[in-house]
User: Fold this.
Amino acid sequence: MIELKNIQKKFGERTVINDVSANMEAGKCNLIIGASGSGKTVLMKCMVGLYVPDSGEILYHGDDFNKMNDEGKKEIRKEIGMLFQGSALFDSLTVEQNIMFPLNMFTRDTTKAKQKRVNEVLDRVNLNDSNKKFPAELSGGMKKRVGIARAIVLNPKYLFCDEPNSGLDPQTSLVIDRLIKEITDEYKITTIVNTHDMNSVMEVGDHIIYMYEGLKEWEGSNKEIIFSKNERLNEFIFASEFLKDAKDMRMLEQTGKIDNDRNMEDLVK
Amino acid sequence: MIKGMFSRPENGKMYWKELMHQCSEIGIGSLGIVVIISLFMGAVSALQTAYQLVSPLVPLTAIAQVVRDTVILEFAPTLVCIVLAGVVGSKIASELGNMRVSEQIDALEIMGINTKAYLIMPKVLACMITIPLLVVLSMVLGIIGGRFAVVLSGIMSYDTFDRGLIEGFLAYNVFFALVKAYTFSYITASIPAYYGYYVQGGALEIGRASTKAVVVSCVAILFADYILAALLLKSPLSQ
Assistant:
């Protein structure tokens, strides 16, 4: 489990993360949601050690990551896999070489064993015939899948995904969301996903943290989020009329009434 | 940044592979431009020296001596390194800058790899291995270029030029040129690596960092050239 205790991070005079405490539930899909600039990417980068928080603790197995020595940090990082917003694949390497890179660096397996593992993860992300392609030859969705394959190739305990759906069409986004959820359940890893896509929230979110201007505004499950009374959260998740309708329809179905002043008759029509 | 480059490699074999890759990229990749520059540099310096030394009191072999010493002392190490600061320096800065901006460096960090050691150290070492070799090649080719130029333009024969090359040759000059080559090769790799590694922003900033890296490297090379000349070359005329 990853515990965050009173994390604060400033860039110059601007406080980007303000006293955030949270627990990332083990073996579940934890989502950090919020509008652009709300601090979710900075919070994730603090968690993986790319940024050092100004104050607070990030505990892996109860030990503060930022107080560990270099060897301790390396050991934790071997348990982490990360999918970046832009996939961050190495341009000069093929798909196969990209995925094999962590294996080459950290294992002493034979080439045959490494090749087998690469094929396994490529098969897992449904990319069987792209081994020899370069990142420039792949579509956005394929790049994300290669990024996921590279992130899971060393069997990590934690999978971090920064905006996995950015730049993808809704259908491909759904494929990526389902893949992340399946991998989380199948490999029993703790997944942390940054997103502002509400489809992702409903599709994969077991545990959700809503960030607003650097503060943790709300925390709960994807079942609770629809009925939340938090105004800022509601403004965020029901930003579109379609989603407002969907919420009210669902509320109408479940409770027989809508607890706002919208015209029910129009909605039912 | 330099301090961060020294750490135990996560996997020596991968670091060695990266070093060999960089040696090939920097050394073999720059071979063509070094050959062309060196041949023409020697040829032009020979023709210009012959143009200026018109006194019947100065023997023709003096032209070969001037070409030899200017090529070895200045043209081969300094000019070649300035050109390489442009060619190799901009490549290093833009490669690292692109890796930084596209989060590839972050991806390596998260894997637990010391990115300064894995990405910068092989580039610096590759420069320090291959650039002095290119400078030695440049010395040879510069002299060959000068030799062909004076003979083809009918100024002197091969024999006269070769006699001039041997007369008054100081091995110390080659040592001095190699000291310069090692110093400049370190500058050529480390300054662009710094600008590339710490770039922030997007494509525009990568371009800016690359340009700045080349300019700063060139100025640093010229400054180091002056310092080394002042320290290592003692003129008999100086007090």
About this structure: Chain B has one domain: 12-230. The interface with chain A takes residues 7, 10-11, 13-14, 98, 102-104, 106-107, 109-113 of chain B (CB under 8 Å). Residues 12-230 of chain B form one domain. Chain B has a mean pLDDT of 92.
